[in-house]
Amino acid sequence: MHFEFFPSRTLTIYLARLFFTRILAVLLMLTLVLQMLDLLGESGKILAYPGNGQGQLLTYVSLRVPQLIARFLPYSVLLATIITLATLNQNSEVISMKAAGLSAHQILAPLIATALAIAAVSFMFNERVVTRATAALNAWSAVDYGPVPRTAGARTNVYLAEGRDILLAGAVNGSGEATVMDQVTYYRRDENGMIVEQLRAPRATYAGPGWRLEQPTRFDARAVATNTLPSAVVAKGISLARVAISGVDADAQDLLTLSRSIDALKVAGRRTSELEAAWWHKISGPLSAALMPLLGAVAAFGLARSGQLLIRAVIGMALGFAYFVFDNAALALGNFGGYPPFIAAWAPFLLFALIGETVLVRTEE
């Protein structure tokens, strides 16, 4: 019996390379198929804007692909685990390794190490690429795929109230006095809450105080009349600080930026449990890839000729997909305040790590 955690160097490299190539193959397949389906649904909206063509479709693909990779990488690791272990089992390689004195944990060790490395790369990819792509895509879709807006600090669908009046912005870019709003709508209401005036403008800049709408279209609800103004300054009570903490999208911010946003919201007395859960999930989410070999390990063992290989593969797949269901449910409960943010992000990971380890020990060790 070998007591080292890893098997021999040759066997470790063999298993890691086999597992890694299957992860890449499954991820490539999923990304291509899902990108084609997604592009079919969005191409009509993109091409509906005058002047958009093939270039804009390629821009959409370049922004959407990183999101698909980040979302479906854990699924790819799960499916690659099932494929790799089932193939090893069917070819009697698992039996040979166990006959050589290797335990189930030693057989899985190269796969778990590979998954940990992929989880680390996934975390860096999410922080450096996915957040920027998400911010850019959200800002672009908020202006109905018109001219691509600046993406630094972009936020979408910003809602701001000034007493009874409301200011809506499809996208907010920049920071400080250089803040710019796109697709702006301002509603002025009377003491009964009825809208008496509406102004729509493609752009608004900070007027210090207030926000200057550029060539707004004004609708007077009382006179039922519409006219275009050269400019108009509205919402003088809405400061730059309020705009800075509004419309925080956790998916479009990295850990450091999101931490600053959470601190600013806490100072303003705003609820931050949803953002805090998202902050923790930025760590636990990529790390879930390292959990997949353990959950899919049931497919590696048992005699292939017993006719139970398919059942074992289905059980491993069911455990993996059950994790994703519980993970989403825990985040939803955390958003509603049912779980503390840390528990909402980490409880499914720890629970299924214990389940996978228990199944492995009880059945194979």
TrEMBL record:
Q: Where in or outside the cell?
A: Cell membrane
What lineage does the source organism belong to? Bacteria, Pseudomonadati, Pseudomonadota, Alphaproteobacteria, Sphingomonadales
Keywords of this protein's UniProt record, alphabetized? Cell membrane, Membrane, Transmembrane, Transmembrane helix
Q: Does the keyword Ribonucleoprotein apply?
A: no
Q: Which InterPro entries match?
A: LptG (IPR030923), LptG/LptF_permease (IPR005495)
Membrane topology term reads: Multi-pass membrane protein
Query: Which sequence ranges are marked TM in the entry?
Result: 12-37, 68-86, 107-125, 283-302, 309-326, 338-361
Q: Which Pfam families match?
A: LptF_LptG
Q: What is this protein called?
A: LPS export ABC transporter permease LptG
